[in-house]
Amino acid sequence: AVVHLKTIKQNHAINEIEAYIEEKRAEINPRYRLHYHVAPPVGWMNDPNGFSFYKGEFHLFYQFYPYDSQWGPMHWGHAVSPNLVDWKTLPTALVPEEEMCFSGSAVVKDDEMVLMYTGRRTTEEEPFYNETQYLAFSNDGVEFHKYEGNPVLPYTPNGSPDFRDPKVWQHGDHWYVVIGSKTDDERGRVLLYRSADLINWEFLSVIGESSGDMGYMWECPDFFQLKGKHILLMSPQGLVPQGDRYMNVHQTGYIIGKFSYETFEFVPEVSFQEIDFGHDFYAATTTEKDGKRYIVAWFNMWDVPHPEDVDGWAGAMTIVRELELVGNRIVMKPVETITSLRERQCGMTGELIITGDLSQNIELLIKGSNGGGQVVLRWDPQVRKVVVDREGDIRQVEWLPLGSEQWRIFLDASSLELFCGEGEVVFSTRVYPDGGWQVTNLSPQPLDVIAYALRRSVP
Ligand code: FRU
User: Within a domain: residue 168?
Assistant: First the structure.
């Protein structure tokens, strides 16, 4: 039966926000604007939210602050796509009121789209904030009404004020949600709850917890199956660099294991691995459609410069990728439909497919034709590592090709994504050239290069 819930109209007139966005859009400096990556129309973007499929379209929401290209009271921006590559901006979906609208997810229930997000409120007492879970509903996928009974999930087992980024899914007769939190002694963990109606929630278990060396907070958890295994994807804060690993301010990665819907226990089988090795990849989230699992992430990092912010905007999404479990690891391939962006004529943005002899060194210099940012990509057969050297700031990882020995490189106006082989090693890195891209082979060997221009597919 369809239960009718009381919802309230959001106070802020969305129209006014949209009028403001329209006006500011004209002032944006286009030099670093991305051609085929979702970015905010103006202002600031961080995490992807509510990645889902509803009424024939993919929906991708995001943490959004329209009034500055710095983080501010969080709204939810909104984009939709028929195919995961052509995107259109919709009106702002959620506006902060008593609560900032932090990250969350979307499900479809009784033909309605339901958003579950973290309401972050400031409080009088230490620690001066608290986080609880809110709902919002839509029956057209455009206009959202917040639930009158918010918050629906106000408690953690230990009373931690850090309680955010709900990812909801349906299994059998129940809705389940994983939410990021921490222990009293500041170890990151993920909590699991269950509900029959999305309103009343029951705590089930801690499905993952840092034993001490896995950070102080686990943000943006996601929990799903690949080939019969359960995957706990999350973004831990506070990992200490170890050799080539954990080089970013915060990381995103996954634990493979077994989960039981009877005991609600998640037993890890393969410990935490990063899912992307580039400089700018965080707060990833997934959705499933027709048996395929898609992932998208914030194509930036906290607490580092975002050079586009002086241009009136900041932040982007990675291209969508498809996940597959191969042995003890996840491989990540560009979404298949991205090939529909290929065009004949040369452009400023594009895709390169590079084949070299992996028994010899490879070195590719990718730089702005008038200077500015640059990246050097290297393959060192001695140590079997792929290196992404962004102006001396190095990310590197061992690569054992599963099959294909090609590199697929996606260049946009201020970004590079490198997919090695079948997607067993991926680097996502923002880089800011002056002028168009210039690619030079500095290897001791000739390389086989196929190049495509990619057409614009975002506003
Ligand atoms: C992750 C995060 C989330 C939070 C959101 C706030 O990048 O810190 O935990 O919900 O950003 O914008």
Answer: yes
Angle at 412 between CA 74 and CA 431, to 5 degrees: 75
**Mean pLDDT over residues 307-318, rounded?**
98
Say whether both 24 and 83 belong to one domain: yes
Domain assignment present for residue 215? The answer is yes
The closest of 253, 120, 131, 266 to 192, measured between CA atoms, is 266
Closest atom of ligand 1 relative to the 180 alpha carbon: 9
Q: Ligand 1: distance of its center to the CA of 103 in Å?
A: 6
Residues with CB under 6 A from ligand 1: 46-47, 63, 74, 102-103, 118, 164-165, 219-220, 282-283
CATH of the domain at 358: 2.60.120.560
Tell me what pLDDT residue 4 has: 52
Q: 312 and 394: one domain?
A: no
Instruction: Ligand 1, residue 250: give the atom nearest the CA.
Output: 7
pLDDT of res. 349: 79
Question: What's the rounded Cα separation, in Å, for the pair 85 and 367?
Answer: 25
Cα–Cα distance, 297 to 293 (Å, whole number): 14
Q: Do 247 and 234 have their domain in common?
A: yes
Mean of per-residue pLDDT scores for the chain: 95
Q: Sorting pLDDT into bands at 50, 70 and 90, what band is 13?
A: confident
Domain that holds residue 46: 7-337
The atom number, within ligand 1, closest to the CA of 104 reads 10
Inside any domain, residue 308: yes
**pLDDT surpassing 60 at residue 2:** no
Retrieve residue 256's tokens. 């493979």
Strands (E), 290-328: 292-298, 313-314, 321-326
Do 404 and 292 lie in one domain? The reply is no
pLDDT digits (tens, 9 = 90+) for 356-390: 999 999 999 999 999 999 999 999 999 999 999 99
| Domain final position from 310, 337, 364 | 337
Domain count, the chain: 2
284: its two tokens: 């990833």
Residue 392 phi, psi dihedral angles, 5° rounding: 90, -10
Would residue 379 be called left, alpha or beta, if left means φ above 0 and alpha means ψ between -120 and 50 degrees?
beta
Determine which residue's CA is closest to atom 8 belonging to ligand 1: 219
Q: Domain ends where: 277, 309, 337?
A: 337
| Residue 38 and residue 176 in one domain | yes
Is 47 designated active site?
yes
Q: Dihedral of CA 70/29/438/35: which sign? A: positive
Inside any domain, residue 140: yes
Q: Residues 183, 209: one domain?
A: yes
Q: How confident is the model at residue 303 (pLDDT cuts 50, 70, 90)?
A: very high
Interface TM-score (ipTM) > 0.95: yes
